[in-house]
Amino acid sequence: PEYMANGIMEQDPFVSLDQEGVGELIRIAVERGRKTRPGIKLGICGEHGGDPASIGFCEKAGLDYVSCSPFRVPIARLAAAQAAVRESASASSMGGA
User: Fold this and answer.
1) Concatenated DSSP letters for 65-81?
2) Which is nearest to 61 in space by CA: 77, 74, 48, 47?
3) What is the pLDDT of residues 19-54, one digit of tens each?
């Protein structure tokens, strides 16, 4: 895409989440949604749900699930497991969970 060729965006926004822009909106939605309804289940679906970088972001942002097309499921499962292990290790090193 031209926006990537011209250096406007580093990643294809239709495949990998823009973690600074869209990511901030997701963090706001998670915070406000859980403040209003603590048990709400939040997630994303589509190509972003199969992108390892986006899955890692979703774990950090506190989303409960990601959904993606069937051919992306194996890589998504691996990326989700890796993100969960990273978050657990980070929480343990900070004296958390």
Assistant:
1) EEE--GGGHHHHHHHHH
2) 48
3) 999 999 999 999 999 999 999 999 999 889 999 999
